[in-house]
Every structure is written in C-alpha cells, then in structure tokens.
Amino acid sequence: METQICQVDAKYPQPELIAQAAQIIRGGGLVAFPTETVYGLGGNALAESASAKIYAAKGRPSDNPLIVHIADLETLPLVAARISEKASRLMDAFWPGPLTLIFEKTPAVPYTTTGGLDTVAVRMPAHEAALQLIRAAGVPVAAPSANASGRPSPTCAAHVATDLSGRIDLLLDGGSADIGVESTIVDMTVEPPMILRPGYITEEMLREIIGAVSVDPAIQGESTLRPKAPGMRYRHYAPKAPLTIVEEERASAHDAEGNAAVMKICALAAELGTDKRIGIIGTDESLAYYRAYGAPEQEAGWIVKSVGSRSDEAGIARNLYRVLREFDEETVDVIFSESFARDHLGQAIMNRLSKAAGQHVIKV
Ligand code: TXA
Ligand code: MG
Cys bridge to 357: 70, 89, 243, 289, which one at CB 3.0-4.6 A? Predict the structure, then answer.
C-alpha cells in the first residue's frame, strides 16, 4: 500500500482534503492525523475490521484498547453509558482537550476497539483538523498514537512516516504537536475517579473541578503493581541504548545552578572512558556545564541534547519524544538523562521518561 502524505492546515483545514480523509475512514481505511497531544492513527471505531487494521499497522497487541475520538457531545451516548455528573463537569472544563475519560461501553462499540473490555476510553481532541475529520467521517474515530508499537509517540508527521509508511492510506501533516505527550486518562467508572495515565491535564487541575481524584498506585514511583490501563503495562518504549535517569533528591530540581545531577552525569560519563559514545539529555540551563566539564571527552563522543528550558515545563513535554527518537538515530552506547520535578506536568514527563528508562534511576 502506498501512503499518501498531504499537508493539512491546522487552523483552516482544506475541506476537500478533509472530505477525502473522511471517505477513507468511512470506507474502512486508516488515516493518521494531527491532534494537540500527539499524532493519532484513525479508523472507524464502530467497525471491527478497522480496529483490526489499526492493531496490524502498529504491530500492537490486540488486548490494548484504543481511544475513541468524538467531535461533539451528542455522539457520547452512542459509545458511552452511565455518564456521571462529575464526568460532565470535567468535559465542560477540559473538552475539547487533552483529557480521556473511561466509561462503561455501549453495545455499539465492538470489543476489538476496547481490547475485550466492557469500558471505553473517549476523548474530544482540541485540534481543528482532527475535529473536522471526525465530523466529516460521521462515525467516532478510534485512534491510538500513530507510532509503531514500542516506539515513542509521534509529535510530527515525519515520525509517523518513519514508523507507518506503506501501512496506512493517508497521513495528514499538520506540523508539530502543541503538547507532545499523550492525553491524561481518568477512569470515571470508579469513585473517586482515578488517573490511569498522567498528562497535560494535571491531578491538581482535575481536583479543582471534581474534588478528590486518586492515581493508579501502579504508575507511581518505582511500583511493581500492574497498571489498570493495559497500555501502561508494556515497556512502552525502550531506547536502543540503555537510559539512566540521574535524579537529585534535594528539592533543587528546578534549579540548574550547582545541580548535583549534572555533575554526577559528567562523572558517570567520564568513568565510561573515551571509547563509548554517550548520549546526554540535558536542558538549556545545563548545556554549558557539559561543555565545560566534558570538553576533552566530547570529541570522543559525548552527544548532549537539550530537551528544553527548566523554566518551561510545557516545552520539555513538547520536545521529549523528539529527543528520544533522535538518540535512536545516533548510535550511542548509553544515555543519561537529568530528571524533572514530579509535580504538575512533571508527573507526565517523569512517567514517560521513567518508562523509557525501564525505571532505572540513580539518586544523588
Ligand atoms: O493523546 C492521546 O490520548 C493520543 C491521541 C492520538 O489522542 N492517543 C493515545 O492512544 O495515546 P494510545 O492508544 O497510544 O493510548 C491509549 C491508552 C493505552 O494505554 C490504553 O491501554 C488505554 O489508553 N486505554 C484505552 N481504553 C481503555 C480502557 N477502556 N480502560 C483502561 N485503559 C484504556
Ligand atoms: Mg501509544
């Protein structure tokens, strides 16, 4: 199959392009499209054959359920049952936006879409091209992140093309994703509602709207419990080179000056000697330190990349997957990463980074 790639205007999507993409989805095909979080791989959520195609294109285990994307609230009762008052408040506050809610599913949603579960994950993305595509398709759109299973989620069309070219009908290129990490997932079938995957909508933001929320204990710290969201159970993404996070235990994680973690990374890298190629995930604030401390070694192979500025957590979220993908392209032997505060958006950043590191964290 040849994958057609078309540029879509993210604000004013071209109607004829949207119509073509919608036609593909209605006809049972697959279209990758931009959302505000990451690119999605879309197919008709109500057709068993479409979800089967999605799993095949991604090489994804078929017990890992897909998120159903809708463009208006009127469609919600078609796919979800028992919509609570708290859920309505969250939808009022955050939809369209990077929040996925889990409900009891209706019979209209096939078990292939929900990975055999009686619940369904639903989200209304805050992206004009995505919303118009879903509306034009006239059906809810099942869309996991548009990466090959085991790779970081795609934050631009080039990432999607690398992973899925030749496996999908159409790729709508709408530029870089604004947020860069996947939506927050909240299970509304339990009381209090439970965060199954942290994301841009933080625990604090949810609490402001509905009061108590819990967090799946399995996704906190270095837990060995079994996460409730099937997708969180997989070692989502393992970089080709082993990744170690160096975390400072003192509360100075926001402060680059005299950062003990940076010094520790320099020491660890220096210990490995000059015949290893060493990848370092740093920040705008620390790049100069690595240059200063690593100067002689750098020639021999320190590759230091900034994931953004510590003063801009959203920027770090936006860059994280791109930087991880870049290190897969460089042939580094090991990767060290600085760590970030685990509150607010940092909860999502550290969740994804720790998973990539297989929970391998050194504390200093
Ligand atoms: O931001 C996002 O959510 C992106 C964009 C494309 O919308 N989508 C996304 O989908 O990240 P995916 O398939 O990569 O991740 C979906 C996650 C998986 O961890 C899956 O196990 C979980 O949602 N999930 C889906 N349905 C569920 C359900 N009924 N119960 C528990 N977890 C569910
Ligand atoms: Mg994914």
Answer: 243
Sign of the C-alpha dihedral, residues 313, 315, 318, 323?
negative
CA-CA-CA-CA torsion sign (155, 158, 159, 161): positive
**Contact residues of ligand 1, CB 6 A cut-off:** 35, 37-38, 40, 64-67, 100, 102, 114, 117, 119-121, 123, 125, 143-145, 182-183, 185, 196-197, 228-232
Distance CA 302, CA 290 (A): 9
Span 41-52, pLDDT tens digits: 999 999 999 999
Crossing angle (nearest 10°) for helices 346-356 and 313-329: 20
Summarised one tens digit per residue, pLDDT across range 248-300 is: 886 554 555 458 999 999 999 989 888 889 999 999 999 988 888 775 656 66
Residue 184 to residue 198: CA distance in whole angstroms: 5
Regarding predicted confidence, which is higher, 211 or 259?
211
Round to whole Å and give the CA distance between 175 and 143. 18
Judged by its nearest atom, the ligand closest to the C-alpha of residue 163 is: 2
DSSP sequence for 48-93: HHHHHHHHHHHT--TTSPPEEE-SSGGGHHHHEE---HHHHHHHHH
- Which residue in the block uniquely carries the two structure tokens 């993305």? 125
Spell out the residues 6+ positions from residue 161 whose beta carbon is closer than 8 angstroms to its own.
3, 5, 171
Residues β-bridged to residue 83: none
Report whether 325 contacts 358 (CB < 8 A). Answer: no
Nearest residue to 349 via CA among 85, 166, 152: 152
Across the chain, mean pLDDT equals: 93
Burial label, 118 (beta-carbon count in 10 A; 0-12, 13-18, 19+): exposed
Q: Please state the separation of Cα 348 from the chain's center in Å.
A: 9
- Rounded Cα distance, 23 and 362, in Å: 51
**Tens digit of pLDDT for each residue in 221-256?**
667 788 999 988 876 688 889 999 999 886 554 555
Residue 52: both structure tokens together: 């089967």
Please compute the mean of the pLDDT values over residues 95-116 and round it to a whole number: 98
Specify the pTM: 0.96
